[in-house]
Amino acid sequence: MRHLLLCRELPPVSGGGIGAYTTRIAELLAERGETVHIISQLWNGTQALERRLDGRLVIHRVPCERPGRTLGRRPHRALRDATARVLFESAYYPQAFAWSAGLLAERLVEDEGIDVIEAPEYEAPLYFFQLRRALGLGPSREPPCVIHLHSPTEIIARSNDWDLGHPYFLTAKRLEDFSMSAADALICPSHYLADEIAARADLRCEDVHVIHYPAPQWTSTGQEPGPNATGPVVHVGRLERRKGSIEWLDAAAAAARTRPDVRFDFVGRPVLDTDWRSGEEVVEDHVPSDVRSRFRFHGQKSPAEVRAILRGARLAVVPSRWDNFPNTCVEAMSLGVPVLATPNGGMAQLVEDGRTGWLSEGASAADLYAALMRALDTPEAELASLGRAASETARERCDPQHIVDAHLELKSALVQAGAGRSLRTPPVLRPRDHDGATPAAPSGTAPGIGVVVVSPARAGAPRCLAALAAQTVFPVATLVVRHDPAGSAAPGPAAAGVGRVDESTEVHPDRWSAIRAGLAAIGRMDPPPVGVAVLDEHDLPLPTYVERCRDVLVRCPEVGLVSFWEGPAERPWVRPCPARPYQWAWNDAAAASVVRVAALGSLESLPACEEPLYERWFLANAVISRGWAGVTLPERLAARSHLEGWVDRQDSSRMARAVLRSLASEIGEDAPDLLLLTRSGTAGTLRARRFRPRALSELAALLASQWRQAARWGWRRALRRLRG
């Protein structure tokens, strides 16, 4: 078979277990005679194209962030794609890699005949490929998509005590949920995470295939010496709250005071810093000065250096609050070093208390201290026996050849069956209605788009109508409706020279009344169009607007709302697909979104929109509340002629309250999630304080760049540019 793997953090990019796994499984597959392509990030010392193992392993690298950054996150110099740069500057910069990698994946699928694709759920690098495929924009060849579960951002954020409501983490969660839900199959290295993912109702994945990580190459052969009874207790991995580093520091410090013969080593990058304190200060808080000399912090090390440190260890520690199936556990056990671990992860599948290591009761400092004292009291002979059992267990359950066999068996079956779930909009965007069925589009509609242009009575909409006249596919009907609160103004003149436009002679008292009248008129057409758009005088649809939105509605009968990117060309507004429960709290739908006529149902059943200028947000919510999917085309399809027209895309607490009142029965099941999404006060304050340093670092980076330019251009020109 011809495999394609996506992984942003492939070495030498700084990363963790995902990069280590991708490198290992790709090499093992290539050694079996498989052809493997990898898409990763361009970094220092790497090339855009690299071939290994007689050409069976091909590594493609695309630019994303700039390597060696010290002041703020900046795009790579080779990141020239305009869309990728916009995504890099968004609230979630990994989208830039997902975009570039997705477009490259589409080309490789066609040019290299890719049979199966695998990507992690973390950072959702396959998101745009999956989204475009579901909307009919992908390549004609349709290999199945496999998502490998490593560590979802949502769980990482909760375990690290981060604010999941921040746009970065919230966007990551939404894209990852989409990617998992749109997969043809899910692979997970541990039953622990597999059970957790399978229990998430919004994914509705029938099964998750558990395949362990393969043991690393340097632990696959030879008889290891086992634990060193006088060696240090070694913690390998990032110093991170999720990894239980805080609790472990407290437990180790308490043990150090009672056991003066014990030393503690830490290998890995420290990421315990906060906005107010550095990671070193946090460590100092938890390691008293009287025992600090027995704590050694090595920082990040190469695999060979990690191996050397583990070979001299008394025992290894994996004290995670939450973990999947950490490579460090497999590596230590393969080297014959017993492991002390918590039950909060896949470690419990390898570590058997009293046989291959020690399991604590929980992840608290007290639980870790109790388990550590048991481990330190283990006699030397028994310690050696634990090491031998650990090595045998790791080699047996993580045998590389058995792991490759499992991958090939699963992926061969997927290729034979063909892609399925990845060809449709995923369940996470298609919430079921009260009868448990997903709405479907009725037959008898015309494959076209009707347009309702809403304008004040004394104004016209010449630029909007001119943009409609320039479409590659014309609307089947264009109706101009007017509104005037005073009710005395006569309709203004229609624009000349833009084609046939029907104009209502009635002047409505408000925008909502005008919109409902226009929608009713479009719905009475025989046959009615498949979709309808509500535009105002500020909307400027691009030439492919009608054609692209129509194609999605025709191809995807479960889609009731088609959104897209809109705004200025240099910085369009990009958001995930409009979906519950997020859509109730803020608007992710473009102002000029197209809705399916059948999704509107009875207009009389729509409650009145209580907030002027938010009518189109309200309309999008009504469609989604009825169980129809909302999707976002990943391309810019509309602009605005005036900034005042952007008001209906902004978050409004008044509108959110109006939605809750008017659609209470439809969105009642989302109440628990809404409580989290609409938090204010403390969460908002923490969010602002937590991310202030990043804003300062970005300003520092800007000042640094202007300093360099000043030497070249002179101070006056540099200062003018900085003010701009």
Write the layout of secondary structure elements.
Blueprint: E1 2-6, H1 17-31, E2 35-41, E3 49-52, E4 57-62, H2 82-88, H3 95-111, E5 116-120, H4 127-134, E6 145-148, H5 153-159, H6 167-181, E7 185-188, H7 191-198, E8 209-210, E9 233-236, H8 245-258, E10 264-267, H9 279-286, E11 295-299, H10 303-311, E12 315-318, H11 327-334, E13 339-341, E14 357-359, H12 365-376, H13 380-397, H14 400-417, E15 446-456, H15 462-469, E16 477-483, E17 502-508, H16 511-523, E18 529-536, E19 539-541, H17 545-555, E20 559-566, H18 582-585, E21 594-596, H19 597-600, H20 615-625, E22 629-640, H21 653-662, H22 664-667, H23 671-677, H24 682-690, H25 692-713, H26 715-723
Parallel strand pairs: 1-2, 1-5, 2-4, 5-6, 6-7, 7-8, 9-10, 9-12, 10-11, 12-13, 13-14, 15-16, 15-18, 16-17, 20-22
Antiparallel strand pairs: 3-4, 18-21, 19-22, 20-21
Helix pairs in contact: 2-3, 3-4, 8-12, 11-13, 25-26
TL;DR?
The chain is an alpha/beta fold. The longest helix is centred in the C-terminal third of the chain and has 22 residues.
Describe the structure.
α2 packs antiparallel against α3 (95-111) and α25 runs antiparallel to α26. Helices cover 38% and strands 16% of the residues. The longest helix is centred in the last third of the chain and has 22 residues, at 692-713. The protein contains 26 helices and 22 strands. The model is unreliable at 491-499, 644-651, 679-700 and 705-713 (pLDDT under 50). It has four domains: 2-210, Rossmann fold; 220-396, Glycogen Phosphorylase B (Rossmann fold), CATH 3.40.50; 446-667, Alpha-Beta Complex (Spore Coat Polysaccharide Biosynthesis Protein SpsA, Chain A); 693-723. The chain has an eight-stranded mixed beta sheet, with helices on both faces. The protein is elongated. The chain is an alpha/beta fold and 724 residues long.
